[in-house]
Design goal:
Layout (H helix, E strand, L loop, with lengths): L2 H25 L4 E2 H10 L6 H13 L3 E6 L6 E6 L1 H26 L3
Antiparallel strand pairs: 1-3, 2-3
């Protein structure tokens, strides 16, 4: 990888890092356990490393944006997450901000110098 590719990769990583909360909360409007969330995000073209996702889920739960519950009915217990009421309000605000920001960037990209 040359210097230009390395710089680009770093900027792409920053964009993704800034949008992972929005992506996770969007998916978690429906209940998922960690691996199913990883798979759903990946299938949507938004791959997230497990070492990034699990600490994020714990942080979002601690902030009151997610709720969780263990399902022990299966041979392998799984912790399921879903967006809380507070998380839904937070998601709505984040999505509005994302939409506004995306619109602004689209406008700038269409402008000719």
């Amino acid at each position: 990888m040359d210097d230009e590719d390395a710089v680009l990769a770093g900027h792409i990583q920053e964009i993704r890092r800034g949008s992972v909360v929005l992506a996770c909360l969007s998916v978690l409007r429906n209940q998922h356990y960690g691996y199913s969330l990883l798979k759903t995000l990946e299938d949507a073209g938004f791959a997230v490393d497990a070492n990034t996702l699990y600490p994020l889920l714990r942080r979002l739960e601690k902030q009151g944006l997610l709720t969780s519950q263990w399902n022990t009915d299966e041979p392998r217990p799984r912790k399921f997450y879903t967006v809380s009421g507070k998380g839904t309000r937070f998601l709505d605000r984040l999505a509005a901000e994302w939409s506004e920001l995306n619109g602004s960037i689209e406008t700038l990209l269409r402008e000719k110098s």
